[in-house]
Amino acid sequence: MIHQITKGVKISVQTKYKGTSYRNNKLYHFFGYAITIENKSPETVKLTDRFWKIFDTLNNTEIVSGEGVVGQTPTLKPNEIYTYGSGCYLESNIGAMKGFYTMINLDTFEQFKVIIPTFQLTTQTVLN
Question: 37-58, pLDDT tens digit by residue?
Fold first, then answer.
């Protein structure tokens, strides 16, 4: 598991290779990931936006951004935890993702970025 703490907000990422799938007559590798967001700060924070860079060794880098995560904009009081799962398709069996969440401190109304650490996406055959 990969971890990163920014301004008292801890991001943990766990990945899992889910197999292959055909989309538009092309073979893709599907990777799932679970992200845990822990508010270790003394203030209440709210996730408003996400920004991802998805690297695929056989494809260009893909940028994904937008409001919230999986349709939600979670608010976390001190010591609260929010976990969600998602996934991505890669043409290659090797890739990586990194990014950040835009959050707002609901006590001070300060907006800040929380780093999502770079994590690897690899198939079992590459790992062995």
Answer: 999 999 999 999 999 999 999 8
